[in-house]
Amino acid sequence: MQSDVPSNDFPVYISSGYFRINDRQFYVPVSVVVPGSQIPFTRGSDKDKATLDFMALMRDEQKRPYGQLRQTVTVEPSASQDVKNKNVQYDTGFQLPPGKYDLKLVVRENQTGRIGSFEAEISIPELKNEPVKLSSIVVSNQKQAVKTTQKNNPLISNGNEIVPNVTHVFSSGQNLYFYYEVYDPAREEKDNNKNAVRLLSSVVFYKNNVKAYETPLVQADELNVPDRKATAFELQVPLAQLKPGFYTCQINVVDDAAGKFAFPRIALMVR
Questions:
Q1: Does 27 lie in the same domain as 11?
Q2: Looking at the predicted structure, is the pLDDT value of residue 157 above 70?
Q3: What is the band of 45 on the pLDDT scale with cuts at 50, 70, 90?
Q4: Domain end marker among 126, 150, 169
Q5: Alpha carbon distance 253, 241 (integer Å)
Q6: Pairing verdict, β 115-124 and 169-170
Q7: CA nearest to 96, candidates 1, 16, 162
Q8: Dihedral in degrees, nearest 10, Cα atoms 79, 73, 159, 269
């Protein structure tokens, strides 16, 4: 963790995002991926076993620690053969004020002791002056049931968690989920509803700068996450409608009551 030189015994991949909790705090989900082919399994009691140690340190621009974690994760024994051909993903998160941070993460594979590390810059914007106060865009092809509730984690609701796709690579038989939140949209006076808004959103897929597909327009009429003064969108796209290849996705968000808009873009691949 203290070394200035990263360890590359095996590759480690990280993605992050940001979601506003209140005016001064954001929840920063962090997803870590290790290729399953890099994890050896030991045979014992007719089951394969593998454990990974994760350690992370979040520091601000002055190198002051703002959060840390350490956890040992056991890979599902019954899934070892399947895991070897896929990725092992670990999801966690930090609560931070706006600013720029340095995240250093170290992963140790406990069978051989090999270590992989990764360092990334994390930037959380001040949203006060943005025409549309928008969270990061999370793309996923998987939801999983969770027993515990994490109040400030926007990716968990109604007992299910949206699992971010770190690589942005999807198979044509999967469903693609987009999740994002809009904060402090303009309010409308409507039937004495203080949470009434008018937000419009869709996603357009471009391939070689040509529009290949567009989701139906979705309209939101209220703050569906009132404790964070937010409206959350979750759009689903069956990828069977798209031909394999690279796509640029434009997320259209229009605050119709305020006459303001945002069009963030992300890249992904369909196989």
A1: yes
A2: yes
A3: low
A4: 126
A5: 23
A6: unpaired
A7: 16
A8: -60
Q: Are 171 and 239 in contact (CB under 8 A)?
A: yes
Question: Are 84 and 183 found together in one domain?
Answer: no
**On the CB side of 94, how many CA atoms lie within 13 Å of its CA?**
26
- Residue 80: domain span: 1-126
pLDDT of residue 229: 94
User: What are the pLDDT digits (tens) for 207-257?
Assistant: 999 999 999 999 999 999 999 999 999 999 999 989 999 999 999 999 999
How far is residue 1's CA from residue 13's CA, in Å, rounded to a whole number? 16
Kindly state whether residues 247 and 262 are assigned to the same domain. Answer: yes
**What's the pLDDT tens digit per position in 162-190?**
999 999 999 998 999 999 999 999 988 77
Residue 41's beta-bridge partner residues? none
Q: What angle do CA 71, 122, 127 make, to 5 degrees?
A: 125
Q: Is 240 helix (H, G, I), strand (E, B) or coil?
A: helix
Question: Using CA atoms, how far apart are residues 13 and 17, in angstroms rounded to an integer?
Answer: 14
Query: How much is the CA Rg of the chain, to the nearest whole Å?
Result: 20
Continuous H helices in the chain: 80-83
Exposure letters 20-39 (e unless 16+ CB within 10 A, then b): bbeeeebbbbbbbbbbbebb
**Checking phi first, is residue 192 left (phi over 0); if not, alpha (psi -120 to 50) or beta?**
left
Is pTM beyond 0.70 here? yes
Q: Are residues 157 and 233 in the same domain?
A: yes
CA dihedral 140, 145, 147, 148 (to 10 degrees): 10
86 shares its domain with 178: no
